[in-house]
Amino acid sequence: MTEKNSMPGSNSGLPDLYRHMRRVRTFEERVGELFVRGKSAGSMLHLSVGEESAAVGVCSHMHDGDTFTTHHRGHGIFLARGADPARMMAEIAGKETGYCHGKGGSMHIADMGLGHLGANAIVGGGIPAVVGAGLAARNGKKDVVSLAFFGDGATGQGILYESMNMAALWRLPVMFVCINNQYGMGTRIDQATANPRLHERAEAFGLVARTVDGLEVEEVADAAAELIAGARAGKPAFLAIECYRFYGHARKDKSPYRAEAEEAEGRNKDPVLRARTKLIESGIMAETDLDAMDAEIAQEMDATIDFAVSGNEPQMSSMFRDVYAPEEAEPEPVRTRIERILARQ
Amino acid sequence: MIETTYRGALRQALTDAMQENEAVVIMGEEVGRYGGAYGVTKGLIDEFGEDRVIDTPISEAAIVGAAVGAAMAGLRPVAELMYVDFIGMTMDQLANQAAKIRYMFGGQIGVPMILRTQGGTGRSAGAQHSQSLEAYVMHTPGLRLAMPATVEDAYHLLRQAMKQPDPVVFIEHKGLYTMKGELDTSAEPAAWGKARVMREGSDVVIVSYSRQLHHALAAADTLEKENGIQAAVVDLRTLNPIDFATIRPLVEQAGRAMVVSEGVMTAGVAAELAARITEECFDYLEDPVVRVAGEDIPISVSPLLEKHSVPTPEFITEVARMMLK
Amino acid sequence: MTTVTQVKLPMPRLGETMEQGTISTWLVKTGETFARGDPLLELETDKTLVEYPALGAGKLIEMLVGPGDVVDVGAPIAIIETAEAWDGIADSPASEEPAEKAPAASLPDTSSDADARPEAGQRRATPLARRLAREGGVDLSVLQGTGRRGRIEARDVRSAIEASTHTDTQPGTPVAAHANAAADSGPVLFIHGFAGLGSNWEKLRARLQKVGLKTEAPDMPGHGRNAAEANSVEECVAWLGDWLSAQDRPVHLVGHSFGAHVAALAANRTRSKVSRLTLVAPAGCGHDINGGFVHGMAHTRTAGELLHLLRLLGPEASRLPADAVGTMATELAKGRLQTLAGVIARGDTQLIDTIAALGALSEDVPVRAIFGSADSIIAKEHMFNMPPRVASHIVPTGHMPHWDDPALLESLIRGSN
């Protein structure tokens, strides 16, 4: 990945945070377009528009060697961590040129090079892996941290509490990042829990826990800086980031379950717009510079669609590959077995 | 060559692996200070310390999930699930995560972890602690499955499992822990994934694994002594991969086969094997392939009912006689 | 309720091709009773001397034919009295009298029991018995099952086959003579295909050696133990040309796939040293080839990958033991064949031509071509491109006829020797 798109370990200031948020926003918009053009592999596309500050703010304090898992709404996190948007788009389109050669897709994207241990389509499914990664870091005396990103919906899953307990018990370099976009699919957080102050649960397990407003990316980044530093030193942490999911659960979902007024108010809490306004008002960047930056990003993201659309389909012969390690026999195709059994000789 | 038990051989395998490879860690409920519910890991915490022999909370899903993450991050975790009956608690981490990560991620990484557990009847442990759930595992591509029947395999199969690049579910039998046998840790074992022909015979082939192997061998002895029937007995050793190459010529010779398994009959391991034998050896069969399997019922605590809920040596003998009548 | 009826016993059909049989000996005397399974008489056909067992209990009333009589299948040979339904004879009452014209009414009460009265052509037989019958040319419908519930088992078919081979074997069997003849006809030289090995021919060679034929199957350049590399077709043809030139008498040259192309080109140059040419699944006889296979083999790195490719070859290739596949993968991973693959095919297009050499060659040397009907590497339709003098066969195999059906290949090769 080119250096300008990765965020190695320092809060590079509001212009950079803005740029990365804009990249996430534009990427997600292009993912929506890919679907409309009929080029995405399926309709299981969960956009993180409105949640850019969580991805960008937290990832601005991750280093090489750190690992993380995400939920199904994880495009922004992976991109903020330095992913190549073209290979991401190709994966979302189910192409051989994607990160997982078209086998994973939007919900199972991963890249070991960037420490992405995998997006997950099971709510809470990726959380315990960071406990294991934390154990590996502790035993190997490596100065790395492992982060689990998940949504508010995962706070209903027992695995989160099993994992938080273990992390706290063993004082692992682990952080739990809850991106609270107010909705688990169609159910609002206050319809799913009696106590929506989620960080209180983590405190009960002995974790260092905070809630921040996702409208302000700098606040997210500052909180992440502090908590991640603590986690590296053996004080596992929990960070809840309050934001609003701008669109439906998936790209195809028009969210009829929530009131228009509520939606309009929620969309006012736009972290990207907020950062942009701040940059202009504080005189850090001129509007024309920001327009130029946005245009450049739009161009970069347009190219991801071309890359995805023009990529090859996976080879049929790859279908039986990677069920087991490369040196192992591949499973026998059903047709081969039937033809063999029914052969007269 | 030493004389030891199935339990002792398992412990020896874990000890040797931990001495050889710093990355090996054991994690599970009661594996450390308590020494394991069935005593397999006794003493290991003293030798290797609590960073490598990790007592966990009673959180089966997170034990397996943490093992997945640890394996991806470079450790060689051996997670212990106290009873296979608890596998339902871990199924997401096992079937959706461990089994699929290599494939979903396009071959970028594997999950070289072991899930050691034990199952089966024989200790009046009741319906929730006596099951044989290997079919759950076998039904999930991406998971290897090993089930040792002998003292030798308790050591060698576990050692081989710990060298596999993919996740292995390793199911011991609670009725075998005290079984004694000779163990040569330096002997060349049968290769991973290879079945072992325990007994040759040209009249009927008995395919089995885990504790039922011993019932099958006892039945074969009786059949020879009392009826002059020569039964071949095969120990599958691993259920994924399945070594059909060893089974085929035996069945082709005998023309009759039965599969003996403690798991319940319907949609079980025996069902899969019977289908395979019928498909592959159809033109050589003189009888339908018979499943001698567990009854389609829960296991009772009553020793009498428990014993007859799964195949007994007497029943296996009787079935062979029926086939050859 | 059972009723005893008199019925005519017809001459049975003891094999699909049998039209008549000769009565050898009656084993039951007139007036004697017999039980189900008792042999009634011995019959001779052109191939068999067999006992005909009773299909139910009864009594022999009258013999209609005697020893030495030649009788058409289905013609009556005796009148018997029986209370049971015999396959195929219930509709043949002994007399035309109306009183006896309703055998259905007088059938025993087992008529509702499907097990006791199998439908014609639906005889209950074990899979093994069916296979043995198929292979031995035994008609199951004339056999009496001795297995569970009257099921025909392997031993029933085996004894039928034994009975037939009994009369078949003549004194002074010509096997030795055949072997001598074979030894005179010069050795058979096998050339394996692309990414193959001389040892691919083992099964077939073993069969031919059994009947006294001398065979050889070297590894081509670029393959196996042949240290010479092969980056062009010419290197292979020249190697084979040298080999042929060194022979003191003509050989029967057999080439498979790419080896068939090499064999045809070498034979064309060295005609005096080739008595016959047999091409098995020959390459270069049509436009297309499974390029994925050719290039896949040349670039394969792992056993898993290789196994996948080998499955394309046909049923027997799928059964190769894991260790053999592993050895092969290690060999191929050396990458010796990558250049050669590019010379043979680009994508799915063949870059080599065998047909041109065959036209002239087949005027001097007998040429036979064998195509597998289920070949997924080289299409069987390439057969239509063969010059008129080439004899073509389509066999029911994949790309490896010599693996999938060595018996058939043996007969084709011996037939042309």
Number of strands of chain A: 8
Using only C-alpha atoms, the radius of gyration of chain B works out to: 19 Å
| CATH class designation of chain A | Alpha Beta
Rounded to the nearest angstrom, the distance between the terminal CA atoms of chain B is: 43 Å
Unreliable runs of chain A, pLDDT <50, ≥5 residues? Answer: 1-6
Examine the secondary-structure arrangement and name the CATH architecture of the largest domain in chain B: 3-Layer(aba) Sandwich
Helix content of chain A: 40-55%
* % residues in beta strands of chain A: 5-15%
**Proportion of beta-strand residues of chain B:** 15-25%
The biggest beta sheet of chain B is recorded as: 7 strands, mixed
* Category by helix and strand content of chain A: alpha/beta
Biased composition (Low complexity) (chain C): 91-106
Domain Peripheral subunit-binding (PSBD) (chain C): 124-161
Subunit structure (chain C): Forms a 24-polypeptide structural core with octahedral symmetry.
Pfam family, one (chain C): Biotin_lipoyl
Q: What's this model, at a glance?
A:
The complex is a heterotrimer of chains A (about 350), B (about 325) and C (about 425). By secondary structure, chain A is an alpha/beta fold. Chain A is built from 13 helices and eight strands.
Structure description:
The complex is a heterotrimer of chains A (345), B (325) and C (417). Chain A is an alpha/beta fold and 345 residues long. Chain A has one domain (3-342): Rossmann fold (3-Layer(aba) Sandwich). Chain A has helices at residues 14-36, 52-59, 75-80, 85-92, 127-139, 158-170, 189-192, 199-204, 217-232, 260-268, 271-281, 287-310, 334-342; strands at residues 67-70, 116-119, 146-151, 174-180, 183-184, 187-188, 208-213, 237-242. The radius of gyration of chain A is 21 Å and the shape is globular. Chain B contains 12 helices and 14 strands. Chain B has helices at residues 6-20, 44-48, 60-72, 87-98, 101-104, 134-138, 151-161, 212-227, 244-254, 269-281, 303-309, 313-324; strands spanning 2-5, 24-28, 53-55, 76-81, 114-119, 144-146, 168-173, 180-183, 196-199, 204-208, 231-235, 238-240, 257-264, 290-294. In chain B, strands 3-2-4-5-7-6-12 form a 7-stranded mixed beta sheet, with helices on both faces. The longest helix of chain B is centred in the last third of the chain and has 16 residues, at 212-227. Chain B starts with a strand and ends with a helix. The mean pLDDT of chain B is 96. Chain C folds into 3 domains: 1-111, RNA polymerase II/Efflux pump adaptor protein, barrel-sandwich hybrid domain (OB fold (Dihydrolipoamide Acetyltransferase, E2P)), CATH 2.40.50; 118-169, E3-binding domain (Dihydrolipoamide Transferase); 175-415, Rossmann fold. Chain C has helices spanning 103-106, 127-136, 154-168, 175-184, 202-210, 233-245, 258-269, 291-299, 303-310, 322-332, 338-344, 355-364, 401-404, 406-415, and strands spanning 5-10, 20-26, 33-34, 39-44, 49-53, 58-63, 70-72, 76-82, 188-191, 215-216, 251-256, 274-280, 345-346, 349-350, 367-372, 391-395. Chain C has a 6-stranded parallel beta sheet with strand order 10-9-11-12-15-16. In chain C, strands 1-8-6-3 form a 4-stranded antiparallel beta sheet, with no helix packed on it. Chain C has a 4-stranded antiparallel beta sheet with strand order 5-4-2-7. In chain C, helix 2 (127-136) runs parallel beside helix 3 and helix 8 (291-299) packs antiparallel against helix 11 (338-344). The longest helix of chain C has 15 residues, at 154-168. Chains in contact: A-B, A-C, B-C. At the A-B interface, helix 5 and helix 6 of A face helix 3, helix 4 and helix 5 of B.
